[in-house]
Design a protein that fits this description.
Shape: globular
CATH topology of the largest domain: Aspartate Aminotransferase, domain 2
Number of domains: 3
Mean pLDDT: 96
Largest sheet: 7 strands, mixed
Helix content: 25-40%
Order of helices and strands: HHHHEHHEHEHEHEEEHHEEHEEH
Bound molecules: pyridoxal-5'-phosphate
Amino acid sequence: MEIIDYKKWSNKATEWGSNYLLDLKNKPVRPNIEPGSVASLLPNTPPEEAEDPELIFSDFEKIVPNAMTHWQHPRFFAYFPSNASVASIVAEQLVNTIAAQCMLWQTSPAATEIEEVMIQWLRSALGLPKYFSGTIHDAATTATLSAVLTMRELALNHKGLEQGLFEQKPLRIYSSAQTHSSIDKAVRLSGIGQNNLVKIKTDDNFAMRSDLLEEAILDDIANDLKPAGIIICIGGTSIGAFDDVKSIIKIAKKYKLYTHVDAAWAGSAMICPEYRLLWKGVEEADSIVFNPHKWLGAQADCSVQFLSNPTAQINTLGLRPDYLQTLEQDEVTNFNEWTIPLGRRFRALKLWFLLRAYGLKGLREIIRNHIKWVEELEEKLNSDSKFKVITNSRLALFTFQYVPVGEDANQATEELLKRINNDGTIYLTQTTHEGKFVIRMTAGQFYCTREDIMTVYEVLKKLT
Ligand SMILES: Cc1ncc(COP(=O)(O)O)c(C=O)c1O
């Protein structure tokens, strides 16, 4: 394929994509295929000779779509959503064509400056104070690792970067057990070590107990360990738990600990002022991550990290070898110094398209509808004795069990989930909560309707 062929193939891909999205609701959410069945259709070695694009495209159509789980399906209710509004898809098509590597202002002036402005726009959309700046990462995992590395370096007076952790007191990071496994990954990768992630017990509402947090910090100090930072959970993956940001940050300030708020999923809901109570006190945090690709409608990957003072992170992650020096570097932002990889995609364009194409009003309506309809579904399950809601809706997530009389609820729920996902009309996943096998119900796909969400109840009735 040559540049002159681009228009033809790109138009063909767009036409295919439009039909795909329009037809998705008529397909099962997950494919019914055996592991290995796709790989077995591909040759073991790459072709020596160029192949006909028609053949490549028809193989794609034959092999790929029916072997994919359709994340943009309006009845995808598993995990958390990974969205792709049409406006953000179009922006990504443009980015894919420009294909810039946005490590420095000089290598990508528009990308850098639009990223800065999108951070400002989102800061204002989420009601955060003006002193927050920030950057865009690929994933919340990377943003959290960046924050944990920053905690590490602040606690070690920036000695870790050059000397390693050798001969240093063990560092300690605190979180509740409701936080996502990306926190565990960050402490492992940062060299702090899993055993130094202290999981603080939660209260009846599954929020970290700040009295126990303070006790743990004092214990650690008494045992010659070095507290470094706290991860605050805003919308945990399992059941949507929220920590009390204010009380945790009060303790963090008392012991001069860095705080990172993981709002990867729930952060998008903060564009609606009525939900901001859920992270009251967040303006005092050092670092906050949220993924517009989860619930706001930006195509993955797009994870925004706000920083109250970026210097500590830049001092931790930034390096300026000779070959990256540029003339204007003191006047501009070189975002590679804020993030882990040197090479960066132009992720801000899809935010620019998204925010303009739907407006905050339109995006708020989508999120409010998801929450309202999920609560309506929860009500239906509450009034049906075959089901038991185990954790109530937190934003657009609740969990439930199937509780047929005389049967073991864990086993019955697990078997029901298998039947649901084999049926294919909807897609749900599970978690374990206080020893119970529960089904998580969460909605957030950009184009899902009330009818799509109510289909969950229809499927449950059909399969029980
Ligand atoms: C609360 C929370 N934090 C972090 C993550 C990790 O997100 P990412 O895939 O962007 O690394 C997830 C993923 O679902 C999550 O739910």
